[in-house]
Amino acid sequence: MPSILTNCVVAIAGDLDDNEWRKEKVKQWVKYQGGKFSDTVDETVTHLLCTEENYKRKISPVRAALKNKVTNIVFRDWLEDSSK
């Protein structure tokens, strides 16, 4: 049975608020769930994890995701819910 993130490529937009949500930890979770992790937001990224604050501020990765029609911008609870 394929994992929930099998066809997903995930990137993060800046700091996600606490130590559990650092880049390396997110990368591990995504790979464990069968997904891929990207350090940059490009046309291959299906999901961009970010905080509400970084979304409102429209930091660089968020702007890139908004220009890219295939990237869904999601908050960290999406990854938590997907991993259950």
Summarize the structure.
The chain is α/β, with parallel strands linked by helices.
Low-confidence stretches: none
The total of beta strands comes to 4
* Sheet with the most strands, sense and barrel status: 4 strands, parallel
DSSP summary: helix tally: 4
Rg result: 12 Å
Cα separation of the termini? 15 Å
Structure classification: alpha/beta
Along the chain, the helix and strand elements come as EHEEHHEH
Written account of the structure:
This protein has 84 residues and is an alpha/beta fold. The protein is 37% helix and 14% strand. The chain is built from four helices and four strands; from the N terminus they run βαββααβα. A four-stranded parallel beta sheet has the order 2-1-3-4, sandwiched between helices. α1 links the parallel β1 and β2. The longest helix has 10 residues, at 23-32. The protein starts with 8 loop residues before the first strand and ends with a helix. The model has no long low-confidence stretch (mean pLDDT 88).
